[in-house]
Design a protein that fits this description.
Layout: H1 8-11, H2 13-18, E1 26-32, H3 50-57, E2 60-66, H4 71-80, H5 84-87, H6 112-118, E3 122-128, E4 146-150, E5 166-168, E6 171-174, H7 192-210, E7 216-221, H8 233-239, H9 247-262, H10 284-317, E8 324-330, H11 360-363, H12 375-381, H13 394-397, E9 398-404, E10 414-416, E11 420-421, H14 425-432, H15 446-449, E12 458-463, E13 466-471, E14 474-478, E15 485-488, H16 504-521, E16 526-527, E17 538-539
Parallel strand pairs: 1-7, 1-8, 2-10, 2-11, 3-4, 3-7
Antiparallel strand pairs: 2-9, 4-5, 5-6, 8-9, 12-13, 13-14, 14-15, 16-17
Helix pairs in contact: 7-10, 8-10, 9-12
Length: 544
């Protein structure tokens, strides 16, 4: 793999900044699960996120940061600094029989935690791993000193579903159960966002007391606000009724206006059109039901923000907040297709066959794949962009990035418009730690933090045949076997005006670049869907 760092100066900038005597900075990486680009207050949303807003106000935000469009690939890229296919995670956590689609981080690809652990950091993780379930694939095996969470997916906030058992380090402490116990606080009701934070704070206290001379690296991977819509009643109550009389049509317009005023988007980009019926087409009963869904979704994000505040306060009380790099981002956009029914509340699992419910007690504590915010609200969450999770249009791959590091980053409430990607997180953290980063695709963002502009670069995506390449202002993107579309992101980041016919040379240039990249990293060039349940059959090029 090609090393993209231009000089060792960038790599070791923190050592020059801090000097040899000062403690290396602590690093906290927070990853949310399935949230839209504009869902957070500091990105134009109406959901209350005062903690994240304060971090942004005392730091900076990226307006053009990218994930991979899906959970497992994003986590792999974040932790390795390479494209997901290079890490072995071109799809999800199941072996597809190809090196680039093994369903776990390949043994020879080092993780950020492994590098930091060797570099003297105390490494800890809580939450959702989703990068392999076997002991050799666990967080402990891949560089973390402490771990609490699930190696698999979660898909429940109040219970532990079968196959989603919870581990403390490498010991299973909670099997699938409807009555899980928070062993740190057994008197409190189990709720994943709270419990994952409880253990993060526990690990931090342990590090402060038992390893006071070591800097810490905390990776806090919430499952919030991923479906199902499980929220605490007190949080839900705060939002109930806020959306009933407004609806996604008006709210999208309001978000768009706020985002323009915040400088996150340009007014000439436009707001992508709705691809669901307008709010006025629904009767009062259905509006109330849909209001309930958005209230639950908002409550999940609100609770996550509260818990991030607990982490911030722990750092502050320990006197370490100022010299801690905090990074917040999301693994993909909000889903809008498939099992997600935008018209009504439904829950499916083994215990509760297809059911329609209208109250909190029956609805908001059930597991199940179909209990999402739905396509209508996804149009709001991903605004102003098109498409959803799994896709490589902006609605699927655009993520907020909030950066807070007062000791070194002088920005206060500033924006950075330089494009970045999750592959940049690992080399950035290594640069912060004063450690080299070899054989990575990403770049350290430290120069961007301090106001410099990185040289033009080319970024790539592929997931389930959805593919894209961005070079400078131009992005070439396609949905599976559909024709390529070309957009000028400086004028049309909402991807509304396809230039492929008027600029065939640029389209061909970017397509050639994509195909060269795909062969290099092992991304599938041809994708077929033999059945709705198995959309993984791919054909690799002979040279791959």
């Amino acid at each position: 793999m090609k090393v993209l760092f231009s000089s060792l100066i960038v790599l070791f900038l923190p050592l020059a900044v801090f000097g040899g005597e000062k403690r290396k900075p602590d690093i906290v990486v927070i990853l949310a699960d399935d949230a839209g680009y504009s869902d957070f207050g500091c990105y134009g949303g109406e959901i209350e996120t005062p903690v994240l807003d304060a971090l942004a106000a005392n730091g900076l935000r990226f307006s053009q940061f990218y994930n991979t469009g899906r959970c497992c690939p994003s986590r792999a890229s974040l932790l390795t600094g390479v494209y997901p296919h290079q890490a072995g995670m071109g799809h999800m956590a199941r072996d597809r029989g190809l090196a680039s689609y093994r369903g776990t981080i390949l043994p020879h690809v080092p993780t950020l935690a492994e590098h930091l652990q060797k570099g003297g950091y105390r490494t800890m993780m809580t939450g959702k791993w989703h990068l392999g379930t076997k002991p050799a694939q666990s967080p402990i095996a891949r560089g973390f000193d402490r771990f609490y969470g699930t190696r698999s997916f979660i898909d429940s906030y109040f219970t532990v579903l079968k196959g989603c058992q919870v581990f403390l380090d490498d010991k299973e402490v909670l099997p699938g159960t409807e009555t899980p116990t928070n062993h740190l606080h057994p008197e409190q009701e189990w709720y994943t966002t709270d419990v994952f934070t409880d253990y993060a704070l526990h690990f931090m206290d342990e590090a402060f007391e038992d390893h006071p001379d070591q800097p810490l690296f905390l990776y806090l991977a919430y499952n919030a606000p991923h479906f199902p819509l499980h929220a605490r009643e007190e949080d839900t109550r705060k939002y109930r009724g806020r959306f009933r009389d407004v609806g996604w049509d008006t709210l999208r317009e309001e978000r768009y206006e706020r985002m323009v005023k915040l400088g996150l988007i340009k007014p000439e980009w436009g707001l992508s059109p709705l691809d669901v019926p307008g709010w006025g087409t629904y009767d009062t009963k259905l509006r109330d039901e849909l209001d309930f869904k958005m209230a639950l979704y908002s409550a999940i994000i609100d609770r996550m923000d509260q818990n991030i505040g607990r982490v911030v306060e722990k750092l502050r009380s320990a006197g370490r907040l100022e010299n801690t790099l905090i990074l917040f981002m999301v693994d993909n956009g909000v889903p809008g297709t498939g099992v997600h029914d935008w018209r009504g509340l439904s829950a499916k699992n083994g215990k509760h066959p297809e059911t329609r419910v209208d109250n909190y007690a029956e609805w908001a504590r059930r597991g199940g794949w179909s209990s999402s915010s739905g396509r209508g609200w996804a149009n709001l969450s991903n605004a102003p962009f098109r498409m959803y999770k799994r896709y490589t249009h902006e609605g699927g791959v655009a993520t907020p990035l909030i950066v807070h590091w007062p000791d070194t980053v002088g920005a206060r409430g500033e924006l950075r418009h330089t494009p970045g990607h999750l592959i940049d997180i690992a080399p950035t953290c290594l640069a912060v730690a004063g450690l080299p980063a070899a054989d990575v695709e990403g770049r350290s963002l430290l120069p961007v933090f301090t106001g410099e502009q990185n040289q033009e670069r080319t970024l790539f995506w592929e997931h389930e045949g959805n593919r894209a390449v961005r070079r400078g202002p131009y992005k070439l993107v396609a949905i599976r076997d559909a024709p390529w579309e070309l957009y000028d992101m400086s004028r049309d980041r909402s991807e509304l005006h396809d230039l492929s016919s008027s600029m065939p040379g640029k389209a061909r240039e970017l397509q050639d670049a994509y195909e060269t990249w795909a062969r290099r990293v092992g991304a599938c060039l041809l994708y077929t869907s033999p059945s709705p349940r198995d959309r993984t059959r791919s054909r690799m090029p002979s040279s791959a």
